[in-house]
Amino acid sequence: MESLISFQHVSIVRQGRFLLDDVTWETKRSEHWAILGANGAGKTTLLQTILGYLWPSKGQIHVLTHQLGKYDVRELRKSIGFVSTNMDSRLEADQSALAITVSGRYAAYGLYEDIRKEDREEAMHFLSMMEAGQLATEPYQLLSQGEKQKVLIARSLMAHPSILILDEPCNGLDFPSRERLIQTIQNLCSTIDAPQVLYVTHYPDEIMPAISHTLLLRDGSIVGTGLKEEVLTEELLSMTFAIAVQVSFQNNYPVVRLKH
Fold it and tell me: Following DSSP, what letter does each residue of 199-246 receive, concatenated?
């Protein structure tokens, strides 16, 4: 099976500090991954490295078969969707959800021309897939945080990425909004032509059934990597969060609680 991401003994050292320490990790096509760890574990550094914004001090990285450092990362990023709440400040927030979605096709943060029919149809397809079709005419700035996340994911799909990175997509959401967003991402992952999803979080209970594999990080090092059921154990999660936990699964969702 084709490898989409490959880290071979990758370390990133800045000012004498290891941001990533000897990371070896590989993802295959059709796998969806959760990247899990506490604040400061190295999750953001890992994402910045995949996107070519940080360069390793040691080791090799291949993304979509291309070795970083030997390929134009600007071209590579066209095949990687990235969704983060930090994108809000860059968007033309007074534009409609539809316009924001269409802008993803052109790697822009807003539109300044009329929307072409084919772009409108595809954008509506992706908005509907994210259960946000009814928001198409709404100004982006008036949407709730959960609604914005759905629009941003639809926007990223307009470029037909091979990899879709969701960086803490449920951050700041209330319980109903979080559960609705998780379900729409679950539905997206379950489609036949879905991109590989990298779901970044520090909450184990967000890891939905469609996520097949998990990478656990602590202090820039890998604690565990592999099939979700084999990695989300009490031992490895206790090491990841530096506190004793108990783990069970309900409906293929992990349920993690502190041990008392």
Answer: EEES-GGG--TT--EEEEEETTEEEEEEEHHHHS-HHHHHHHHTS-EE
pLDDT along the chain (260 residues), means of 10: 92 92 95 96 95 93 93 92 86 90 86 85 96 96 94 96 96 93 96 94 95 97 97 97 95 91
Give helix 145-157 / helix 175-189 axis angle, nearest 10°: 20
40: left (phi over 0), alpha (psi -120 to 50) or beta: left
Which residues, 6+ apart, have CB-to-CB distance to 108 below 8 Å?
none
Output the CA–CA distances (angstroms, integers) from residue 86 to 19, 97, 145, 151, in the order listed. Answer: 21, 17, 12, 14
Report how far Cα 220 is from the mean position of its chain's Cα atoms.
Answer: 18
| 35 and 232 Cβ atoms separated by less than 8 Å | no
Which pTM value belongs to this model? 0.94
